[in-house]
Amino acid sequence: MSENHEIVMQAKHIVKQFPASHGRTLTACNDINLTMYKGRTLGIVGESGCGKSTFVRMVISLDKPTSGEILYHGKNITGLSKKETWENRQNLQMVFQDPLASFNPKMKIGDILTEPLMNYKKIKRNERDAKARELLRMVELPEEFVDRYPHNMSGGQRQRISIARALSLEPEILVCDEATSALDVSVQESVIELLVRLQKEKNICMIFICHDLALIRSFAHQIAVMYLGHIVETIPGEDVSDHAVHPYTKALVGAQFSVHMDPAKKIESIESEAPSPLDVPTGCPFQNRCEHCTEQCKKEMPELKEIAPGHEVACFYVENMKK
Amino acid sequence: MKKQNFFLAHKQFTLFFILALAVVGTAIFAPWIAPKDPLEAVMIDSLKAPCAEYPLGADKLGRDILSRVIYGTRTSLVSTLILVATIFVVGTLLGIIAGYFGGWIDQVIMRIADMMISFPGMILAIAIAGMLGPSLRNGVIAITAVSWTKYARLARSMVLKVKRNLYVEAAIVNGTSTFKILWKHILPNMLTIMTVTAAADMGTMMLELASLSFLGFGAVAPTPEWGLMLNEGRTYMAKAPWLMIAPGIAIVIVVIIFNMLGDSIRDILDPRQD
Predict the structure, then answer these.
(1) Fewer C-beta within 10 Å: chain A N or C terminus?
(2) Which 8-state DSSP code applies to residue B271?
(3) Which residue in A60, A91, A102 has the most chain B C-beta atoms within 10 A of its own C-beta, making it the best mutation to test that interface?
(4) What is the mean pLDDT of residues A106-132?
(5) Which residues on A lie below 8 Å from B182 (Cβ)?
């Protein structure tokens, strides 16, 4: 299905390492390969510290990868000059996790919303107010908000402002870094609905970082599961619950709970902690928490292999896991 | 209505604000308030004790001390304002550059600042003022050269704190230029603390200028300036103590007013910081 869509961006062999104390290196992302399509949503799931935020920071050119390429319409954006990076930012916008912290407390909503457009000289000073009102309408907020300050709004309203600001430049790729995790569950849904509607209208590619698998599978076309800097499985969103193969994905699916579930069913949790990214074990990254771990897993790193269209898994025992 | 509530709610601030206005008023309206010309010497009245004609006495040249103290407000206030404004602008600017860009430029600016504070401030100021030659302007330059470091350090640490905010990152993603980030996102969010510091520094700076003048490196005769007046009166301390009492008390009062004003501004602004 995703083959019918135009490729917007491709991450190829992205590695990001940070120097740590005592000469060690922290590997936040290890050989990430992902493809993003126009008008589609790529969900990235994983626990805290697995490198998903680091990855999107590289996508929006806030960080440079240690090695690897990020191709935007076939052009590598990791080696651009300052000017080119600045030009390219118009195409890649981001909605941050904490909407309040992502607004300057001294600026009014109207100025916040139109700042990106002013930066790229897309509108004139006297058009600011009208444009701000138009953007507010787009995210279903009252136009009077132009004169408010961010701290006078609710979390959901702020996140709508955040979305409006990110979309004001009409980017091709919208990155949402846990854009809903700071919100009430009731508000989450309406924000997601808004995002999905805007995505359809403007045909944008969305990268949605989330640690709530239940939420993301409801609207992501493709889900990439990250663990300790590795992609362990990519799977179409609708297949996650039934066809997940990697033990980690399965564990995440098992750890979900909902009001509709059978009360007798046990909510599975994953034993022990993830290893430190300072000290990544050789072999499969998930080895110490996997019940199916064998000698081979401890020695060799499993490669991502396609087992069905749009479904890749990094595990030696795909056949066993399917059962 | 709202203004009135504000002043009622902050009584200390209101009190010192009114007093500070009185000081500023004295400076502005000096020609109308002062009974005599501060430069007019009447030699037969030399060192005259306070009396009806000279409420605070007369100095060695028979000039009216009350008038000189009143005119001295002008000199002190104007030079202090220029001084504080200069160190505020210079220090903040250098601090922002050091804090935001980091790297070698940070090293250069902050090492120069370290050099400046490794000397006792007053002595360095005396050295600079001595090299430039005594005048009020050179006194201001000398104290600026010594005092900007405090603002640079404060501004730098504030920038380092504000820079970490998500909205600065968001601004980068939005394509905001570095200059605009500094001007619109960083500066407004650190200005409150900087302003409070400047307000609280008014008194200290006034004192430093007066000290420099007292030592003969600031204002030169016949300018009516408090520090200079103190110095002139020093010789006659036993014979005519009013020569020192009047400008001394003037310094104490004005410095206290501005210190207390600075303190109350801080009390008002600080709780709202976060």
Answers:
(1) C
(2) G
(3) A102
(4) 90
(5) none
Nearest to B174 among A98, A101, A116 (CB): A116
Best of B164, B167, B172, B184 to substitute, by most chain A Cβ atoms within 10 angstroms, is B167
Burial annotation B218-249 (CB, 10 A radius, 16+ → b, else e): bbbeebbbbbbbbbbbeebeeebebbbbbbbe
Residues of B in contact with A93 (CB under 8 A): 173-174
Judged by DSSP in three states, B274 sits in coil
Cβ separation of A119 and B175 shorter than 8 Å?
Answer: yes
Please judge whether B170 and A106 are an interchain contact, meaning their C-beta atoms are less than 8 angstroms apart.
Answer: no
DSSP string of B209-228?
HHHHHHTTSS--TTS--HHH
Q: Average the pLDDT over each of A231-245, A275-289, B158-172, B221-235 and give the range with the smallest value.
A: A275-289
**B175/A86 CB distance under 8 A:** yes
Lookup result for tokens 């005119």: B71
Tens of pLDDT along A63-77? 889 998 999 988 898
Q: pTM to 2 decimals?
A: 0.79
- Beta-carbon contacts of A79 under 8 Å, excluding residues fewer than 6 positions away, are none
ipTM of this predicted structure: 0.81
Q: Is B183 an interface residue toward A (CB < 8 Å)?
A: no
Q: Is B69 helix (H, G, I), strand (E, B) or coil?
A: helix
Verify whether the Cβ–Cβ distance A104 to B180 is below 8 Å: no
Give which of B68, B74, B67 is closest to B27, Cα–Cα: B74
Q: B190 vs chain A: nearest CA distance in angstroms?
A: 11
d(CA A304, CA A226): 12
- Asked whether A225 and A46 are in contact (CB, 8 A), the reply is yes
Verify whether the Cβ–Cβ distance A62 to B170 is below 8 Å: no
A3 has a pLDDT exceeding 60: no
Q: What is the pLDDT of residues B16-55, one digit of tens each?
A: 999 999 999 998 998 888 888 888 888 887 777 788 788 8
Amino acid at A21: S
* Cβ contact, residue pair A98, B171, below 8 Å: no
Instruction: Tell me the shortest Cα–Cα distance from A290 to chain B, in angstroms.
Output: 36
Please compute the mean of the pLDDT values over residues A78-91 and round it to a whole number.
89
Q: Residues A172-182: what's their mean pLDDT?
A: 87
What's the rounded mean pLDDT across residues A240-254?
84
